[in-house]
Design goal:
There is one protein chain. This protein is α/β, with parallel strands linked by helices. It contains 15 helices and 14 strands. Strands 12-11-10-13-14 form a five-stranded parallel β-sheet, sandwiched between helices. A four-stranded parallel β-sheet has the order 3-2-4-5, sandwiched between helices. The chain has a three-stranded parallel β-sheet with strand order 8-7-9. Helix 2 packs across helix 7. It binds FE3-S4 cluster. The site of FE3-S4 cluster has 13 residues, from loops.
Length: 391
Amino acid sequence: MYLTSEEEKMYRGEYGWAYEVSMKILTQLGDLFGASSLISINSAHLSGVSYKTLGDAPIEFLQAIVDAGGKVKVKSSLNPSCMDSFYLPEKLPKEYGEKQSQILDLYTKMGATPTLTCTPYYLYKFQKNTHHAWAESSAVIYANSVLGAWTNREGSPSALASALIGKTPEYGLHLSENRKPTIRVKVETKLQNETEYGALGIHLGKQLKDNIPLFEGLKGYTTIDLKQLGAGLASSGMTSLFYPSYNTTEKLETISIEAKTIKETIQNMSTTEKPPNLIFIGCPHCSLNEIRSIAYNLKNKKLRKDTELWVCTSPYMKEKAKKWVNTIEKAGGHVLCGTCAIVTWLKPLGIETLMTNSAKTAYYAPTLNNTQVTLAPLNQCLKTATNNRKT
Ligand code: F3S
Protein backbone atom coordinates (compact mmCIF):
# COMPACT_ATOMS: atom_id res chain seq x y z
CA MET A 1 0.00 0.00 0.00
CA TYR A 2 1.33 3.44 -0.91
CA LEU A 3 2.19 5.66 2.08
CA THR A 4 2.91 9.38 1.97
CA SER A 5 6.20 10.51 3.58
CA GLU A 6 4.24 11.70 6.62
CA GLU A 7 2.52 8.31 6.95
CA GLU A 8 5.90 6.60 6.56
CA LYS A 9 7.24 8.63 9.49
CA MET A 10 4.30 7.57 11.64
CA TYR A 11 4.80 3.96 10.53
CA ARG A 12 8.46 4.11 11.58
CA GLY A 13 7.52 5.44 15.01
CA GLU A 14 8.85 8.98 14.59
CA TYR A 15 5.65 10.38 16.19
CA GLY A 16 5.57 7.81 18.98
CA TRP A 17 4.27 4.30 19.62
CA ALA A 18 0.54 5.14 19.56
CA TYR A 19 0.70 6.33 15.93
CA GLU A 20 3.20 3.62 14.96
CA VAL A 21 0.94 0.80 16.17
CA SER A 22 -2.10 2.47 14.56
CA MET A 23 -0.31 2.73 11.21
CA LYS A 24 0.72 -0.92 11.48
CA ILE A 25 -2.91 -1.98 12.07
CA LEU A 26 -4.13 0.10 9.11
CA THR A 27 -1.41 -0.97 6.66
CA GLN A 28 -1.91 -4.64 7.52
CA LEU A 29 -5.61 -4.27 6.94
CA GLY A 30 -5.05 -2.34 3.72
CA ASP A 31 -2.58 -4.94 2.39
CA LEU A 32 -4.97 -7.76 3.30
CA PHE A 33 -7.85 -6.19 1.35
CA GLY A 34 -5.79 -4.77 -1.53
CA ALA A 35 -6.14 -1.05 -0.68
CA SER A 36 -3.86 1.19 -2.74
CA SER A 37 -3.61 3.98 -0.12
CA LEU A 38 -5.14 5.56 2.96
CA ILE A 39 -7.95 8.11 2.61
CA SER A 40 -8.99 10.84 5.05
CA ILE A 41 -12.07 10.25 7.16
CA ASN A 42 -14.52 12.71 8.71
CA SER A 43 -15.31 10.64 11.80
CA ALA A 44 -14.71 7.42 13.68
CA HIS A 45 -17.15 5.51 15.85
CA LEU A 46 -15.45 3.32 18.44
CA SER A 47 -16.75 0.05 19.88
CA GLY A 48 -14.94 -1.86 22.60
CA VAL A 49 -16.37 0.42 25.28
CA SER A 50 -18.50 -1.74 27.58
CA TYR A 51 -16.47 -3.43 30.32
CA LYS A 52 -18.78 -6.43 30.01
CA THR A 53 -17.85 -7.08 26.37
CA LEU A 54 -14.27 -5.76 26.59
CA GLY A 55 -12.95 -7.48 29.73
CA ASP A 56 -9.67 -6.58 31.45
CA ALA A 57 -6.96 -7.31 28.89
CA PRO A 58 -7.66 -4.48 26.38
CA ILE A 59 -7.61 -1.87 29.17
CA GLU A 60 -3.81 -2.23 29.23
CA PHE A 61 -3.67 -1.54 25.49
CA LEU A 62 -5.83 1.58 25.86
CA GLN A 63 -3.64 2.73 28.76
CA ALA A 64 -0.51 2.25 26.63
CA ILE A 65 -2.02 4.38 23.83
CA VAL A 66 -2.76 7.16 26.33
CA ASP A 67 0.70 6.88 27.93
CA ALA A 68 2.25 7.20 24.46
CA GLY A 69 0.32 10.45 23.89
CA GLY A 70 -2.22 9.09 21.38
CA LYS A 71 -4.90 11.65 20.46
CA VAL A 72 -7.72 11.21 17.97
CA LYS A 73 -7.50 13.32 14.79
CA VAL A 74 -11.20 13.28 13.88
CA LYS A 75 -14.56 13.47 15.65
CA SER A 76 -14.72 10.14 17.49
CA SER A 77 -17.88 8.88 19.19
CA LEU A 78 -18.17 5.96 21.63
CA ASN A 79 -20.51 2.96 21.69
CA PRO A 80 -22.59 2.21 24.85
CA SER A 81 -20.98 1.19 28.12
CA CYS A 82 -22.14 -1.36 30.70
CA MET A 83 -23.52 1.32 33.07
CA ASP A 84 -25.98 4.18 33.05
CA SER A 85 -25.42 7.04 35.49
CA PHE A 86 -28.09 6.28 38.09
CA TYR A 87 -29.87 2.97 37.92
CA LEU A 88 -27.34 0.18 37.27
CA PRO A 89 -24.49 1.41 39.54
CA GLU A 90 -26.70 0.69 42.56
CA LYS A 91 -27.51 -2.82 41.38
CA LEU A 92 -24.23 -4.14 39.97
CA PRO A 93 -20.89 -4.75 41.75
CA LYS A 94 -18.95 -1.57 42.43
CA GLU A 95 -15.90 -3.00 40.65
CA TYR A 96 -17.78 -3.08 37.31
CA GLY A 97 -18.49 0.63 37.60
CA GLU A 98 -14.88 1.41 38.48
CA LYS A 99 -13.54 -0.55 35.50
CA GLN A 100 -16.08 1.13 33.23
CA SER A 101 -15.03 4.58 34.45
CA GLN A 102 -11.40 3.67 33.84
CA ILE A 103 -12.17 2.71 30.21
CA LEU A 104 -14.17 5.89 29.60
CA ASP A 105 -11.46 7.99 31.18
CA LEU A 106 -8.86 6.51 28.81
CA TYR A 107 -10.96 7.15 25.70
CA THR A 108 -11.70 10.68 26.90
CA LYS A 109 -7.97 11.33 27.40
CA MET A 110 -7.46 10.32 23.76
CA GLY A 111 -9.98 13.01 22.81
CA ALA A 112 -12.98 10.77 22.01
CA THR A 113 -16.42 12.11 22.98
CA PRO A 114 -18.30 9.89 25.48
CA THR A 115 -21.48 9.81 23.40
CA LEU A 116 -22.13 6.25 24.67
CA THR A 117 -24.53 5.36 21.94
CA CYS A 118 -24.86 3.00 18.99
CA THR A 119 -26.88 5.67 17.13
CA PRO A 120 -24.30 8.50 16.80
CA TYR A 121 -26.24 9.63 13.71
CA TYR A 122 -28.91 11.12 15.99
CA LEU A 123 -26.26 13.40 17.54
CA TYR A 124 -24.35 14.64 14.53
CA LYS A 125 -25.14 15.30 10.87
CA PHE A 126 -23.18 13.16 8.44
CA GLN A 127 -22.81 14.31 4.83
CA LYS A 128 -23.54 11.98 1.93
CA ASN A 129 -20.57 10.44 0.12
CA THR A 130 -18.12 11.27 2.91
CA HIS A 131 -15.75 8.66 4.34
CA HIS A 132 -15.83 7.39 7.93
CA ALA A 133 -14.40 4.52 10.00
CA TRP A 134 -17.13 3.10 12.18
CA ALA A 135 -17.31 0.02 14.30
CA GLU A 136 -20.77 -1.15 15.58
CA SER A 137 -22.44 -3.06 12.78
CA SER A 138 -25.92 -1.52 13.19
CA ALA A 139 -24.50 2.00 12.87
CA VAL A 140 -22.30 1.05 9.90
CA ILE A 141 -25.21 -0.33 7.88
CA TYR A 142 -27.40 2.67 8.78
CA ALA A 143 -24.65 5.08 7.70
CA ASN A 144 -24.19 3.35 4.34
CA SER A 145 -27.84 2.60 3.55
CA VAL A 146 -29.85 5.47 5.07
CA LEU A 147 -27.40 8.37 5.46
CA GLY A 148 -25.43 7.68 2.27
CA ALA A 149 -22.15 8.06 4.21
CA TRP A 150 -19.40 5.56 3.39
CA THR A 151 -17.79 3.24 5.91
CA ASN A 152 -16.52 -0.30 6.12
CA ARG A 153 -17.49 -2.42 9.09
CA GLU A 154 -14.50 -1.82 11.33
CA GLY A 155 -13.45 -3.83 14.34
CA SER A 156 -12.56 -2.04 17.60
CA PRO A 157 -8.76 -1.90 16.92
CA SER A 158 -9.08 -0.64 13.33
CA ALA A 159 -11.69 2.01 14.22
CA LEU A 160 -9.42 3.26 17.03
CA ALA A 161 -6.36 3.21 14.74
CA SER A 162 -8.31 5.20 12.12
CA ALA A 163 -9.42 7.70 14.76
CA LEU A 164 -5.79 8.25 15.82
CA ILE A 165 -4.47 8.60 12.26
CA GLY A 166 -7.57 10.32 10.80
CA LYS A 167 -7.48 7.93 7.84
CA THR A 168 -8.62 4.49 6.73
CA PRO A 169 -7.46 2.12 3.97
CA GLU A 170 -9.37 2.71 0.74
CA TYR A 171 -11.07 -0.60 -0.01
CA GLY A 172 -14.51 -2.24 0.24
CA LEU A 173 -17.38 0.21 0.67
CA HIS A 174 -15.07 3.24 0.23
CA LEU A 175 -15.02 2.45 -3.50
CA SER A 176 -18.12 3.24 -5.58
CA GLU A 177 -17.73 0.09 -7.70
CA ASN A 178 -18.23 -2.00 -4.55
CA ARG A 179 -21.46 -0.27 -3.56
CA LYS A 180 -23.75 -1.56 -6.31
CA PRO A 181 -26.60 -3.90 -5.44
CA THR A 182 -25.83 -7.53 -6.23
CA ILE A 183 -29.08 -9.28 -5.34
CA ARG A 184 -32.78 -8.38 -5.56
CA VAL A 185 -35.05 -9.19 -2.61
CA LYS A 186 -38.74 -9.13 -3.47
CA VAL A 187 -40.80 -8.66 -0.34
CA GLU A 188 -44.21 -10.12 -1.20
CA THR A 189 -46.00 -8.85 1.90
CA LYS A 190 -46.61 -5.48 3.55
CA LEU A 191 -44.45 -5.42 6.67
CA GLN A 192 -46.55 -4.17 9.58
CA ASN A 193 -44.09 -2.83 12.12
CA GLU A 194 -40.43 -2.35 13.10
CA THR A 195 -40.20 -5.87 14.52
CA GLU A 196 -41.15 -7.40 11.18
CA TYR A 197 -38.46 -5.29 9.49
CA GLY A 198 -35.91 -6.55 12.04
CA ALA A 199 -37.04 -10.15 11.52
CA LEU A 200 -36.66 -9.73 7.75
CA GLY A 201 -33.09 -8.58 8.41
CA ILE A 202 -32.27 -11.53 10.66
CA HIS A 203 -33.71 -14.02 8.17
CA LEU A 204 -31.87 -12.54 5.18
CA GLY A 205 -28.56 -11.83 6.95
CA LYS A 206 -28.02 -15.58 7.35
CA GLN A 207 -28.18 -16.22 3.61
CA LEU A 208 -26.87 -13.10 1.88
CA LYS A 209 -23.13 -13.68 2.54
CA ASP A 210 -21.36 -10.60 1.11
CA ASN A 211 -24.20 -9.63 -1.23
CA ILE A 212 -25.67 -6.12 -1.28
CA PRO A 213 -29.47 -6.44 -1.33
CA LEU A 214 -31.81 -4.19 -3.27
CA PHE A 215 -35.33 -4.42 -1.89
CA GLU A 216 -38.45 -4.39 -3.99
CA GLY A 217 -41.87 -4.15 -2.42
CA LEU A 218 -41.04 -2.35 0.86
CA LYS A 219 -43.83 0.18 1.30
CA GLY A 220 -44.42 3.05 3.72
CA TYR A 221 -41.32 2.40 5.81
CA THR A 222 -39.88 4.85 8.32
CA THR A 223 -36.22 5.36 9.23
CA ILE A 224 -36.98 3.42 12.42
CA ASP A 225 -38.05 0.45 10.29
CA LEU A 226 -34.83 0.74 8.27
CA LYS A 227 -32.78 0.97 11.47
CA GLN A 228 -34.30 -2.34 12.59
CA LEU A 229 -33.88 -3.94 9.15
CA GLY A 230 -30.20 -2.95 9.07
CA ALA A 231 -29.52 -4.05 12.65
CA GLY A 232 -31.05 -7.45 11.82
CA LEU A 233 -29.09 -7.88 8.58
CA ALA A 234 -25.81 -6.94 10.26
CA SER A 235 -26.39 -9.19 13.31
CA SER A 236 -27.02 -12.51 11.63
CA GLY A 237 -24.73 -11.80 8.68
CA MET A 238 -22.05 -9.49 7.27
CA THR A 239 -24.25 -7.14 5.23
CA SER A 240 -23.14 -3.50 5.62
CA LEU A 241 -25.18 -1.86 2.88
CA PHE A 242 -28.68 -2.30 1.48
CA TYR A 243 -30.98 -0.35 -0.80
CA PRO A 244 -34.60 -0.01 0.41
CA SER A 245 -35.42 0.96 -3.19
CA TYR A 246 -33.23 1.66 -6.22
CA ASN A 247 -33.71 2.08 -9.96
CA THR A 248 -31.70 -0.39 -11.93
CA THR A 249 -32.32 -2.29 -15.12
CA GLU A 250 -29.48 -4.66 -14.31
CA LYS A 251 -30.38 -8.32 -14.17
CA LEU A 252 -29.88 -9.56 -10.62
CA GLU A 253 -30.44 -12.87 -8.94
CA THR A 254 -33.80 -12.55 -7.14
CA ILE A 255 -35.10 -14.07 -3.95
CA SER A 256 -38.66 -13.68 -2.64
CA ILE A 257 -39.84 -13.29 0.92
CA GLU A 258 -43.39 -14.11 1.91
CA ALA A 259 -45.41 -13.23 5.00
CA LYS A 260 -45.04 -16.79 6.29
CA THR A 261 -41.22 -16.44 6.50
CA ILE A 262 -41.45 -13.29 8.61
CA LYS A 263 -44.00 -14.87 10.93
CA GLU A 264 -41.89 -18.01 11.36
CA THR A 265 -38.72 -15.98 12.01
CA ILE A 266 -40.45 -14.07 14.83
CA GLN A 267 -41.89 -17.29 16.26
CA ASN A 268 -38.52 -19.06 16.14
CA MET A 269 -36.76 -16.16 17.86
CA SER A 270 -39.36 -16.07 20.63
CA THR A 271 -38.05 -18.68 23.03
CA THR A 272 -40.55 -18.23 25.85
CA GLU A 273 -44.17 -17.42 26.57
CA LYS A 274 -43.45 -16.76 30.22
CA PRO A 275 -44.15 -13.23 31.50
CA PRO A 276 -41.08 -11.02 30.98
CA ASN A 277 -38.99 -9.80 33.92
CA LEU A 278 -37.77 -7.02 31.64
CA ILE A 279 -39.26 -5.22 28.67
CA PHE A 280 -36.44 -3.60 26.71
CA ILE A 281 -36.93 -0.97 24.02
CA GLY A 282 -34.01 0.85 22.42
CA CYS A 283 -31.88 -1.53 20.41
CA PRO A 284 -30.43 0.27 18.51
CA HIS A 285 -30.72 3.28 20.84
CA CYS A 286 -33.96 5.26 20.64
CA SER A 287 -34.45 8.43 18.64
CA LEU A 288 -36.40 11.41 19.98
CA ASN A 289 -39.48 10.27 18.04
CA GLU A 290 -39.33 6.79 19.54
CA ILE A 291 -39.06 8.17 23.08
CA ARG A 292 -41.97 10.52 22.36
CA SER A 293 -44.22 7.75 21.05
CA ILE A 294 -43.43 5.55 24.08
CA ALA A 295 -44.31 8.49 26.34
CA TYR A 296 -47.63 9.09 24.49
CA ASN A 297 -48.47 5.45 24.92
CA LEU A 298 -47.69 5.47 28.66
CA LYS A 299 -49.35 8.80 29.52
CA ASN A 300 -51.50 8.45 32.65
CA LYS A 301 -50.75 4.72 32.87
CA LYS A 302 -48.92 2.72 35.53
CA LEU A 303 -46.55 -0.12 34.75
CA ARG A 304 -46.98 -3.52 36.33
CA LYS A 305 -44.91 -3.93 39.49
CA ASP A 306 -43.51 -7.32 38.44
CA THR A 307 -42.03 -6.14 35.13
CA GLU A 308 -39.29 -3.60 34.52
CA LEU A 309 -39.36 -1.38 31.47
CA TRP A 310 -36.04 -0.09 30.11
CA VAL A 311 -35.97 2.48 27.35
CA CYS A 312 -32.35 2.89 26.25
CA THR A 313 -30.89 5.90 24.48
CA SER A 314 -27.86 8.20 24.51
CA PRO A 315 -27.21 10.69 27.34
CA TYR A 316 -27.67 13.46 24.74
CA MET A 317 -31.09 12.20 23.68
CA LYS A 318 -32.25 11.64 27.25
CA GLU A 319 -31.48 15.26 28.02
CA LYS A 320 -33.20 16.45 24.85
CA ALA A 321 -36.29 14.32 25.57
CA LYS A 322 -36.66 15.43 29.23
CA LYS A 323 -40.39 16.05 29.00
CA TRP A 324 -41.08 12.58 27.53
CA VAL A 325 -38.59 10.93 29.87
CA ASN A 326 -40.58 12.32 32.81
CA THR A 327 -43.78 10.77 31.46
CA ILE A 328 -42.12 7.36 31.05
CA GLU A 329 -40.57 7.53 34.52
CA LYS A 330 -43.83 8.68 36.06
CA ALA A 331 -45.45 5.53 34.68
CA GLY A 332 -42.71 3.49 36.40
CA GLY A 333 -40.30 2.92 33.48
CA HIS A 334 -36.57 3.54 33.45
CA VAL A 335 -34.93 5.59 30.72
CA LEU A 336 -31.35 4.35 30.84
CA CYS A 337 -28.76 6.27 28.90
CA GLY A 338 -25.38 5.13 27.66
CA THR A 339 -26.05 1.40 27.98
CA CYS A 340 -28.38 -1.39 26.83
CA ALA A 341 -29.63 -4.81 27.91
CA ILE A 342 -27.03 -6.61 25.79
CA VAL A 343 -23.88 -4.78 26.91
CA THR A 344 -24.69 -4.98 30.61
CA TRP A 345 -25.40 -7.91 32.93
CA LEU A 346 -28.99 -9.11 33.43
CA LYS A 347 -28.63 -12.22 35.60
CA PRO A 348 -27.36 -10.34 38.68
CA LEU A 349 -30.52 -8.21 38.38
CA GLY A 350 -32.66 -11.34 38.51
CA ILE A 351 -33.73 -10.99 34.87
CA GLU A 352 -34.34 -14.32 33.17
CA THR A 353 -37.04 -13.46 30.66
CA LEU A 354 -37.00 -10.48 28.36
CA MET A 355 -39.48 -9.00 25.91
CA THR A 356 -38.29 -6.68 23.16
CA ASN A 357 -39.32 -5.15 19.85
CA SER A 358 -35.75 -5.52 18.55
CA ALA A 359 -34.86 -8.55 16.45
CA LYS A 360 -31.18 -7.82 17.11
CA THR A 361 -31.67 -8.11 20.87
CA ALA A 362 -33.77 -11.25 20.43
CA TYR A 363 -30.95 -12.69 18.33
CA TYR A 364 -28.21 -11.99 20.90
CA ALA A 365 -29.87 -12.11 24.34
CA PRO A 366 -30.17 -15.93 24.66
CA THR A 367 -26.41 -16.39 24.14
CA LEU A 368 -24.91 -13.13 25.42
CA ASN A 369 -27.21 -12.76 28.41
CA ASN A 370 -28.57 -16.24 28.93
CA THR A 371 -32.14 -14.96 28.95
CA GLN A 372 -35.25 -16.27 27.27
CA VAL A 373 -36.91 -13.90 24.85
CA THR A 374 -40.27 -12.83 23.49
CA LEU A 375 -40.04 -10.78 20.28
CA ALA A 376 -43.03 -8.49 19.65
CA PRO A 377 -43.72 -4.99 18.27
CA LEU A 378 -43.54 -1.89 20.46
CA ASN A 379 -47.30 -1.62 21.03
CA GLN A 380 -47.50 -5.18 22.27
CA CYS A 381 -44.43 -4.70 24.51
CA LEU A 382 -46.00 -1.63 26.11
CA LYS A 383 -49.35 -3.35 26.47
CA THR A 384 -47.63 -6.19 28.33
CA ALA A 385 -45.87 -3.63 30.54
CA THR A 386 -49.16 -2.08 31.61
CA ASN A 387 -51.78 -4.83 31.38
CA ASN A 388 -53.07 -7.01 34.13
CA ARG A 389 -52.11 -10.55 33.38
CA LYS A 390 -52.25 -13.96 34.98
CA THR A 391 -48.87 -14.94 36.40
FE1 F3S B 1 -26.98 -0.74 20.52
FE2 F3S B 1 -26.92 -2.48 22.47
FE3 F3S B 1 -28.42 -2.91 20.38
S1 F3S B 1 -25.21 -1.39 21.66
S2 F3S B 1 -27.37 -1.96 18.69
S3 F3S B 1 -28.66 -1.24 21.86
S4 F3S B 1 -27.15 -4.41 21.38
